[in-house]
Amino acid sequence: MNLIKTYFTRQLANRGYPTDDINYSLNYCQGDGMAFYGDIDEEALIRLADTLMKGTEKAAVKRAIDKGATVTIDRNNCATHYSHYNTMTVIAEACFGEELTDFEWASFQSFEQALEEDIKATSKSLEADGYAIVDAGSQYGALADKKRTFNTARFTLIIEELEDEDFSLEYWDDSLIDETIQAFIDKKQRYFTLKVSVVARDDETVLGESYLGGCTQSNESPSKNYNGYLPQMVSEAIRESRDFIESISLAA
Fold first, then answer.
1. Nearest to residue 74, comparing CAs of 93, 95, 46, 57?
2. pTM score, two decimals?
3. Are residues 210 and 245 part of one domain?
4. For FRET with 174, which of 73, 104, 157, 202 sits at 20 to 30 Å CA-CA?
5. Do 95 and 52 touch, CB atoms closer than 8 A?
6. Domain range spanning residue 200?
7. What does the mean pLDDT of the chain come to?
8. N-to-C CA span, the chain
């Protein structure tokens, strides 16, 4: 699961919303955004009622849920081409369980309206967070100007941070995932693939390279040697360069 999908899934689950059908597009284009669809289970409905409703209406909504009233987030006509806060519609039903009183049904309809508003607000909030996460690993955002060069008489050593499209927190300790993603959103950290290359100055031939994906770095107190990984990567790139030069010499 990629970084943004991981974040959306965790946040929706915390709020009590379904996570099996999440759609998003974050390319700064018309119609971009995120949306989520599916049935809200009974336990989650109770949690949402506690959050969104008050007083006698809250109690009536809980009774309605206990009697079998359901809520589904479904696609509307706008969802054919887009995925954003305005492509979701909330459907509240009480067809299959015990019959509701008039007040219970009226309260459940009020709950439906509250859910509609909260779902749109959640979608907008997660969209904004999603863009911030994209920016934390973008060459046009946090990775801009993250390139260093060192020249000798014959060679150039290049150290640069590249976009890591496969960046994932799948195997991270669960306690660190939310903290790390929040740091991306708050612009305190960035993520990238670290690349070290040795280039011939005369014709710009790449002689040796070394890559390390899944890197993170603090924007507030960055480590110039990338937490100790850089020296090893430089050595690998230089060793590959020597092997390359030697192979050319032997071929000649």
1. 93
2. 0.90
3. yes
4. 73
5. no
6. 147-251
7. 93
8. 48
